[in-house]
Design goal:
The protein is an alpha+beta fold. It is built from 18 helices and 25 strands.
């Protein structure tokens, strides 16, 4: 057999080199017509191996090798491409302004569709429209398209849009001045608009005069209770500008009617809405001035009476209790007295919390409710009378109720860290795992966050809070949340009183405080660029001991040493659920890192390194996610609006069973707090004889219940405590 001839016959076999078409696949109509006219291939027409083949230009009519008969489109091939492969004439032609090579080279550096390959643009158009484009050769001046009329027209429109975008990107350099001019024009238009709005506001703050036709007029009497009209709203009632803009009305005060707000409007039917907003605004001002409730209580000692002295440690002052031994008769008298004090404490607590919740719906801002456990410190207090070294219990109780007494709760649990986790594991009747899939109280996965303090202008501080979590599917940790808090003065952790603060000193348990704090966040856009860039360079370095909250802490946060950070505090926390309730208990360890040579923010030395061993403090919090959902609505309230929920005790402290007593849920919650405080306390203090002199009383040390191994942390932790 002649292998050359057999090879030529082999190339002429129909369908050689491609998979056979399946019998159950429907053939298109054009394929049937082609098969009807198909002729049997002849070996004479086959090219002999080794003979020269004439060159073939791109995009010319072509057929299958060894046959000139058109075939149906290949599997996975579009009908448009089948038309091109079978040699049909193009259904459309797009004329190019010049050779394709010149156009391609001129637009290679400014492709609007990204860094694509040679034919990727044509492939994208084919995929989007269904048409087929044969990529032109370098010297061709037309683009040929195959497909249906609609497909071809859509493809031509896309090609035209691409050329238009290329031309827009190919603007001459002189057009750069046009863009600058356009920016200046837009800036001037914005300035003109702001100037016009300011002029309108100035006009709305004044009397329009008798010559102006108005549809509605109103006089609103400002109540005498609370702040005066101008002190509350401003000299020109600037606080009512949102109402002026919304209703396009004049709000002003006449000289002969200094206690009235005059309303002059141009639209009918708006008077009722304006009156309601003014009433709500007055209620909001009253809430801000009167709802701020402060109450300091002290729990009576159950095993006896004693004396309380002011103990100063680490720049903070806290009460230190010394119990005196009593006989049976005195113990019975004290028990009756202690029960009376508890009843008065409960009455005061119920009155303050109930009154606050009724007025909190008018307060705007970022509000946050928590019960914190730690150490209660005294910032302002009255010294014992007549030069005594200590207060009696009744004197301390009365002093805490005085309006001028100031105090706050800081992190600092009285329990030793070696006893903390064993006590939590033993409290199975009180706690349950935070993760509902867990069945034991073994230490859960900790959460990590950091509080940064920066030195700012005028000896103030700027704070950054950052939260870190493990990245999904990886072992690395990344920042998931960050927030800036407004500066505060050095030495004033609480410059303004919280809307609600109920502090309780408990010498047998841990001190605790129910607080609704008003947080003031700082806009990130107003922060210096260097600090914003710093927040993006913070790294979190995991270590082997980080999963154990009671292990020796190791620094985890890394950043450049030249950053203007005065100190930073790393927080490691674990969470449990209070059994049978929706309340969450969070136990937190705070690791404080400061620069070695820094005595205070004013003496910050950026060249100094941070201490390797941190100062450790412990704290705890109890909260409910429902509190965050309710109080979170206050951040988006506009002027004159109120929160849309029922401000009652049952809303924030629901009872475990249905009852007519509205305060039942609150007392159940207080009982839970006291049980947690007992777990986190250091136990009852030792008793001493009552026959001691003043000098002995002045020189003796506080009991373990009031001091213990607790270390107070004096820091503004914001949302971290």
């Amino acid at each position: 057999m002649d292998f050359e001839a057999s090879g030529a016959q082999e190339w002429a076999l129909p369908g050689y080199g491609r998979p056979e078409s399946q019998n159950n696949r429907p053939e298109p109509e054009n394929s049937k017509m082609q098969n009807a006219t198909k002729t049997i291939p002849s070996t004479a027409s086959a090219s002999v191996r080794g003979t020269a083949r004439p060159p073939r230009a791109r995009c010319t009519i072509r057929g299958r090798r060894g046959s000139t008969t058109p075939q149906a489109h290949l599997p996975g091939e579009t009908p448009a491409k089948a038309q091109w492969r079978n040699g049909k004439e193009p259904a459309g032609i797009f004329k190019l302004p010049g050779p394709f090579k010149e156009i391609r080279d001129a637009g290679s550096s400014r492709r609007p569709f990204g860094q694509q390959g040679r034919n990727d643009v044509f492939d994208d158009i084919c995929r989007k429209t269904g048409a087929y484009i044969c990529p032109p050769a370098g010297d061709q001046e037309a683009i040929r398209l195959w497909g249906g009329p609609y497909q071809v027209s859509q493809a031509i429109e896309l090609i035209q849009s691409i050329f238009a975008r290329c031309e827009s990107l190919a603007l001459p350099k002189e057009r750069k001045w046009t863009r600058t001019t356009a920016y200046s024009v837009g800036k001037e238009e914005l300035a003109d608009q702001l100037e016009l709005e300011d002029a309108l506001l100035q006009a709305y703050r004044k009397d329009p005069g008798p010559n102006v036709t108005c549809f509605e007029k109103l006089l609103f009497l400002w109540p005498k209770e609370g702040p005066s009209l101008k002190n509350a709203l401003g000299a020109e009632l600037e606080a009512l500008d949102p109402i002026r803009v919304r209703f396009e009305c004049h709000l002003f005060v006449l000289d002969d009617l200094p206690d009235h707000i005059c309303v002059v409007g141009y639209a009918q039917g708006k008077t009722g809405l304006i009156v309601q907003l003014l009433r709500n605004k007055w209620a909001e001002i009253m809430a801000n001035s009167l709802v701020r409730s402060k109450l300091y209580l002290v729990e009576p000692f159950e095993s006896g009476q004693g004396e309380v002295s002011a103990r100063r440690e680490g720049g903070l002052t806290r009460a230190a209790f010394r119990a005196n031994s009593l006989n049976d008769t005195d113990m019975q008298i004290w028990a009756d007295r202690a029960e009376l004090i508890r009843s008065k404490n409960n009455a005061r607590l119920l009155n303050v919390v109930d009154r606050f919740l009724k007025g909190v719906i008018y307060v705007r801002g970022h509000l946050r409710m928590r019960v914190n456990l730690g150490l209660f410190v005294l910032d302002r207090y009255r010294v014992p009378s007549e030069g005594k070294p200590a207060w009696s219990f009744e004197e301390l109780w009365e002093m805490l109720l005085h309006e001028n007494t100031k105090g706050r709760l800081v992190p600092g649990l009285k329990i030793d860290k070696t006893q903390l986790l064993p006590r939590l594991l033993a409290a199975s009747d009180l706690l349950q795992p935070y993760d509902r899939t867990e069945d034991s109280l073994r230490q859960p996965e900790p959460a990590f966050s950091v509080n940064f303090e920066f030195t700012g202008q005028q000896n103030s501080l700027l704070r950054l809070e950052a939260e870190f979590a493990k990245c999904p599917g990886a072992h690395d940790y990344g920042m998931i949340h960050s927030r800036w808090l407004k500066p505060r003065k050095v030495g004033h952790v609480q410059d303004s009183r919280s809307p609600l603060q109920v502090g309780v000193i408990d010498f047998e348990r841990s001190d605790w405080q129910l607080e609704v704090a008003s947080l003031e966040f700082y806009e990130a856009s107003a922060v210096e660029k260097a600090l914003r860039e710093f927040s993006q360079t913070i790294k979190f370095k995991p270590n082997d001991a980080m999963s154990d909250i009671s292990a020796t802490p190791t620094r985890k946060v890394l950043f450049h040493s030249s950053a203007p950070v005065f100190r930073f505090i790393e927080k490691t926390s674990i969470r449990y659920r209070l059994k049978g309730t929706r309340y969450i208990l969070e136990i937190a360890r705070y690791d404080e890192y400061t620069r070695k040579s820094a005595i205070g923010p004013a003496s910050l030395n950026l060249a100094a390194t941070f201490e390797e061993k941190p100062r450790i403090s412990w704290g705890a919090s109890i909260f409910d996610f429902a509190w965050d959902n309710l109080l979170g609505k206050h951040a988006n309230m506009s002027v004159g609006q109120t929160a849309r929920y029922d401000p009652t005790l049952q809303t924030f402290f629901p009872a475990s069973i249905e009852t007519d007593d509205k305060s039942q849920g609150l007392w159940e919650f207080v009982a839970l707090v006291k049980r947690v405080a007992a777990v986190l306390g250091s136990g009852p203090p030792a008793t001493v004889k009552s026959t001691v002199t003043s000098k002995e009383a002045n020189g003796r040390s506080a009991s373990p219940a009031s001091s213990g191994n607790a270390r107070a942390l004096d820091a503004d932790l914001g949302t971290l405590f």
